[in-house]
Amino acid sequence: MFSKFTSILQHAVEALAPSLPLQEDFVYHWKAITHYYIETSDDKAPVTDTNIPSHLEQMLDILTQEERERESGETGPCMEYLLHHKILETLYTLGKADCPPGMKQQVLSFYTKLLGRIRQPLLPHINVHRPVQKLIRLCGEVLAAPTENEEIQFLCTVCAKLKQDPYLVNFFLENKTKKLEASKDSGAGLVKEDPCSPDTGQNQNQTPSLVTSTLEAAACQATSPGEASPSPVHSTLPNNDNYNLVSSLLNLTKSPDGRIVVKACEGLMLVVSLPEPAAAKCLTENTELSQLLTDRLAQFYRALPQSMDPLDIETVESVNWGLDVYNLKEDAAAFAGKRALISFLSWLDYCDQLIKEAQKTAAAVLARAVRERFFVAVMEPQLMQTSEVGILTSTALLNRIIRQVTSEALLQETVYFLLGEETGPETLAGITQHPLRHRLIEHCDHLSDEISIMTLRLFEHLLQKPCQHILQNLVLRCLEERNYIENKQQEEREEREHMENGQPHDAVDLEEDPLFSDLSPDNRLSSPDWLSCSPPPSTEHTKPDGKTEVHKIVNSFLCLVPDEAKSSYQVEGTGYDTYLRDAHRQFRDYCGVCQRWDWRSSPKSFEKCNLDSPFFEGHFLKVLFDRMGRILDQPYDVNLQVTSVLSKLSLLPHAHLHEYLLDPYINLAPGCRSLFSVIVRVVGDLMLRTHHIPEFTPKLLLVRKRLLGLEPEGMSVDHVTLLEGVIVLEEFCKELAAIAFVKNSSPKITMIMYSFFCC
């Protein structure tokens, strides 16, 4: 009570007294603080019962006022006094001793406000960055400490300052070897003899008191060999640099207070983004940041239920890290494991964002750590198991991970984990070289339709990721030599490309089939140059009426399914035109992604191709073509997913892939197949089977209307799997026709055609 009365009286006197010059006022407040330690012998009273907080606040106000009154960048006498008399060193020592109780909290607050309010750069000064570094080491020492809030505010302020001037981070990379050597040279009279010892502003010959004992004890403890040695957290790390800022932030990420954890994560996000190479190296080699990321990721993953509904995993709301406000009762009512799933996805989002923001070399190291310590160590055994329930759950989780990852480094490591790093030609004997890749592709043709659909969906999402290695590894490396084309027909093919009206060599196969009696393709369309997001039309075979040869390729796909097996023309809004707009938009998006890749704008010349080497379509295309060949005998949902993956591949602006998937007139080498040839065989099988189904056309129309929700479910229809397969086949051929048209036409022609069809 008496101390509070004294404080009030002092404020009243100060208010009535004439104002002193700023420097005198500043020195007065600082000496008032040091006087407390000289005159007081009771070190049990909390600091809030003293005038220390008020004096510290007054000192801050004076420094702020002084800077405001002076020209930008000019250091005033008060700031000079603070720097010259090492006031921050003294405050650090008092804060470390926490004398009187609560002093550490006051010191942290003073440092935070000083760094935050003063605009001129303070950290370059040795009498600022050195005590700041020492104070950083005090943060995070004790979890759930009463000073946690002040600690994290102080650390985040330092991080923000380093973000403004990244080169300053080099002051905070502390060499442990040099520190050990310095500690050995320190003597018993360290506080008095060390030129760096703090200045209390008092006569050194005065009688020892609370200030003397407090400063000596704290200073000796601060520079003792015990503190100079590496902390146990870093004892196994090889580098000789301490990154105490990161270590303290990492410690605070373990706080039971969620708000402290979020702030610590924000601080780490700022630190990893600093461009200084030395800091990035120290971050990855001499801190446990990567271990924190991967251990917590594994911890959240292992907390998930062994069995989860894939639909729940796919549809759970996206949660950005730090914003996952939740209600346990509501989450439990939604589905079992929702809270655990959101926690996992939230931390995954943090890892992804942190790696995206990180300095380039640091990002690569952190992403590799996630691959080795989480994907390989934790997820791979789950994906390789034989339990169908386990496979389905782990594949659905992997699918969600792929959708969520956006950082380039983490995406690349994820792809390497799934597919391997091979880019050379794939062989049939070598498809098991990367076991996980082989297993995932095999799962596309699994006995369980659910597993097949989920794995196909996983690959569909992979194909839409901006990573060239995905496409190179899965398909492009098998098409590089164009050895799917018959070698002996090379000269005829090249000659035909320059003829205006010539019969393609392989047209005989189509003419022998009654389905194609109305087709007489004159020329093949040479692959366009994808030099922009929407390619220019081919003018090599432009007809007098202005139409290009693209209509022949479009008609080749549109006429694949015979009229008696078509049903879309009887239902409004299901024409070919419905696919044009989507195809144009998707192709434009793909071109935007692929534009920075070194892709061929035209096919590799035959002179440079090794056409004599055996062709293998690749494990991925093999499974897709096998699935496509069974479209009449597979469930509707499986067929939709298979055709969706193939359409994504067809949209890619790569000359060889376009030729292989969308050119009906290529001369296939013996034993080779293309997407068009697979569909031709399916149509041939369909023609044989439709004659044995009574009332085929009415049943087909009924099934289509039921799929569209235009007819209620009634009596079961026999051969429903085949009928649904025919409907998917017809729609897929229309989609391929639209893709072929868009890829071979200008945007203007595409929109004119779209408007024409809509009319």
UniProtKB/TrEMBL annotation:
One family name in Pfam for this protein: DUF5917
Region annotation Disordered: where it falls in the sequence: 183-210, 489-508, 513-547
Domain spans labelled FHF complex subunit HOOK-interacting protein C-terminal: 617-709
Comp. bias regions, Basic and acidic residues: 489-500
Compositionally biased region (Polar residues): 199-210
Superkingdom of origin: Eukaryota
Transmembrane parts of this sequence: none
Similarity comment: family membership: Belongs to the FHIP family.
Name of protein: FHF complex subunit HOOK interacting protein 2
